[in-house]
Amino acid sequence: MPSNASLIEPKAMSSVSYTLYYGTFIHTPSLGDLEICFNTLVGVTAAGDIDFIHKNYRPEEHDYQTAVQFFINNRKNRHFDYVDYSQDPTKFFMPGFIDTHIHASQFPNIGIGLDCPLLDWLNDYTFPLENKFTDSNDEKLKFAKNVYSKVIQKTLTNGTTCASYFTTIDPHTTNLFAELLLEIGQRGFVGKVCMDHNDTYHDYEESFEDCVDSMNKIIERMAQLNPAEETLVKPIITPRFAPVCSRKMLKWLGKLSVTQDLPIQTHISENKKEIELVHDMFPDCEDYATVYDKHNLLNSQTILAHAIHLTKKERKMIREKKCSISHCPTSNTFISSGEAPIKQYLYNDKINVSLGTDVSGGFDSSILGIIKHCILVSHHLAMKTGRQGDKLTIIDAIYMATQGGAKAVGMPDKLGSFELGKKFDVQLIDLDSKESNVDTFEWQLPTQHEGDHKKRTKKMEDLLGKWIFSGDDRNCVKVWCNGRLVINKMHYSRDDRWVMVEKDF
Ligand SMILES: O=c1[nH]c(=O)c2nc[nH]c2[nH]1
Ligand SMILES: [Zn+2]
Fold first, then answer.
1. Do 452 and 466 belong to one domain?
2. Are 28 and 402 in contact (CB under 8 A)?
3. Is the CB of 130 under 6 A from ligand 1?
4. What is the overall mean pLDDT for the chain?
5. Both 262 and 180 in a single domain?
6. Does ligand 1 come within 6 angstroms of the Cβ of 126?
7. What is the CA 461 to chain-centroid distance, rounded?
8. What is the ipTM, given to two decimal places?
9. Do the strands 324-327 and 352-355 form a parallel or antiparallel pair, or are they unpaired?
10. Is residue 503 situated within a structural domain?
11. Per-residue pLDDT at 461 exceeds 90
């Protein structure tokens, strides 16, 4: 938001419903930049677009009635909601989290397979589970529906409003997954896993021809599914990782990305044995990144998960091709893959980095959890290297979880922060929610009447630390996706002080 924001004239709008949100809005509009906006009034259209922002709006200083009147007159619309949390210092709005790497089909395996290295972990735990989604008879559809509904609900209740998912090789249950996203109300990129060369586990692979057929099926189905003029679910081209893909398939997928203008996601350089395997399988390619580049799979719409052991040359290539990295610290720790030097990627190599839960290599489906873990892992890396500069800050982590994620999924102008024209994909945090694990004391709260703005801001920054390190899903009390309220835990709360009124001024 511009710091000298004044009442901004909203665009003409014909819809009958409009919502004004008033309270503290916190975001990281650019890397290293945390903005805490107290007493901010945000207007959201029925289509879920932010079309009005007024920072530091004080009813007692401005003519509040006039401002609301302005809305009504300009819209010929007397019906709107007004939601006010401004009096409560423990409540604040944050952009919804964006999880840029998660395997929906692996949700039942959370917590299973500790310390099993990647290639064994895939054969022992992951491929057998994913294979259960194949053959779409009624039983399989029931199985998939159960798992997929749970993972969407779980991530949404943790504040994830958008995610880039891997499903399995199966197109039918992948389409079912997209339908569930729309029904439950989460924005999603849906990746049918492509793998036609699984040398170590032949039970779970597809032929090249089946892959082509399945991709056509999901592209066609998702084009039908979205509501008019909105893209809430979108296919994402998903070669699983180089070791299980033929050159023919990689080449076809690269071409498909261009002809259909579709994003790409895959894994890269997660584990040292995996890197050796790629060198053996693609001896003509200098490194792992070159394998993808040779097949036209690296561009500004590519998300590369893990990227722990990159060479300098690979980092340069990733930067030049404008790919994004999805950092998955929980998974990298759980299956002992390594510590990625994220601070260097962000600030020295100038690569866009986002966060991924990587369920179920990662055991935590909450991006708030991944924020904690990425900071702690970076501290361990700094202790090992002796470089203080390897430590990630809270601001870095929030950025990766929101605006960095928005860039990674190709929606930097629509998601990730509070700006005019962006979508209202938002979470309401309440540190004082029912059964909250966060303890706050009266003297730690930034109040309206705090004369000193700096002091109030510092107190809010401290509260952010409390939320990140001792908070959890219980503090994420409301979630909106595309302006639609999709999670509401405040129905029965004694402390529910929000008001929703339809006034006739
Ligand atoms: O963490 C991971 N999870 C997976 O499912 C996978 N497949 C290839 N490489 C992978 N890494
Ligand atoms: Zn993964």
1. yes
2. yes
3. no
4. 90
5. yes
6. yes
7. 22
8. 0.98
9. parallel
10. no
11. yes
What single DSSP character describes residue 10?
Answer: P
Calculate the alpha carbon distances from 194 to 36, 61, 161, 256, 271 in Å: 43, 59, 25, 13, 20
E strand residue ranges, 135-262: 160-166, 187-191, 193-194, 233-235, 238-239
Q: Six-digit token pair at 258?
A: 């261009």
Pocket test for ligand 1, best of 106, 114, 118, 277 (most atoms within 8 A of CB): 118
Atom 10 of ligand 1, residue of closest alpha carbon: 267
Q: Is the CB of 270 under 6 A from ligand 1?
A: yes
Domain residues for 385? Answer: 97-408
So what's the pLDDT on residue 77? Answer: 47
Q: Is 198 in the pocket of ligand 1 (CB under 6 A)?
A: no
Per-residue three-class SS string for 249-294: HHHHHHHHHHHHCCCEEEEECCCHHHHHHHHHHCCCCCCHHHHHHH
Q: Which bound ligand lies closest to the C-alpha atom of 116?
A: 1
Higher pLDDT among residues 296 and 58, named by residue? 296
- For residues 419-432, average pLDDT: 97
Rounded distance from Cα 122 to ligand 1 centre (Å): 7
CATH number, domain with residue 248: 3.20.20.140
Q: Quick check: CB of 101 below 6 Å from ligand 1?
A: no
Ligand 1 atom with the shortest distance to the CA of 361? 1
Note the ligand closest to the C-alpha atom of 242.
Answer: 1
- Asked if residue 497 belongs to a domain, the reply is no
**From the CA of 271, how far away is ligand 1's center (Å)?**
10
Q: How many A from CA of 326 to the centre of ligand 2?
A: 10
Domain boundary among 391, 408, 425: 408
pLDDT reading at 135 higher than 70: no
Question: Which amino acid type is present at position 171?
Answer: P
Specify the ligand 1 atom closest to the Cα of 130.
5
Number of domains in the chain: 2
Stretch 436-446: mean pLDDT: 95
Which ligand 1 atom minimizes the distance to the CA of 267?
9
Task: For residues 478 and 352, state if they share a domain.
Answer: no
Looking at the fold, whether 130 and 257 belong to one and the same domain comes out as yes
Mean pLDDT across 337-345: 98
Domain boundary among 355, 377, 408: 408
Look at residue 154 and tell me if it is in a domain.
yes
The CA radius of gyration of the chain, in Å to the nearest whole number, is 23
Q: What are the structure tokens assigned to 94, written together?
A: 């944050």
Start-to-end CA span in the chain (Å): 29
Q: Which residue in 253, 269, 243 sits closest to 219, CA to CA? A: 253
Residue nearest to atom 1 of ligand 1 (CA): 361
Q: What global pTM score does this model have?
A: 0.94
**Has residue 171 been placed in a domain?**
yes
